[in-house]
Amino acid sequence: MSQIELTVTQLRSLIGLHVRYYGKDYQIIEVLEDGPALVLHDSAAHPTIQANLLGNATRRAPHTETVRVLSPDRDELHPDFLALELIEPVAPAAGD
Questions:
Q1: Distance CA 29, CA 39 (A)
Q2: I need a labelling partner for 9 at 20 to 30 A (CA). Which of 30, 64, 68, 94 fits?
Q3: Cα separation, 91 vs 96, whole angstroms
């Protein structure tokens, strides 16, 4: 089978898009080249406590999800990537 070739530039063009991933709304905020994978930010979720390398709570961090783009053998799109649904961003209400 042939491998799917996606460039990092093509994937980076997705940054900023609003998507629905398994019923929750996210925004694509980053592309991880190794994989490749997309990082999704859940702006509606409350920040979670993030631990340092020693396991001590250090700060609150936004909730993110990482979504693989390609299957391990790189010959098809990963099912999690295919589960992303493009949605329109919510426009601010008049007077906001």
A1: 6
A2: 64
A3: 10
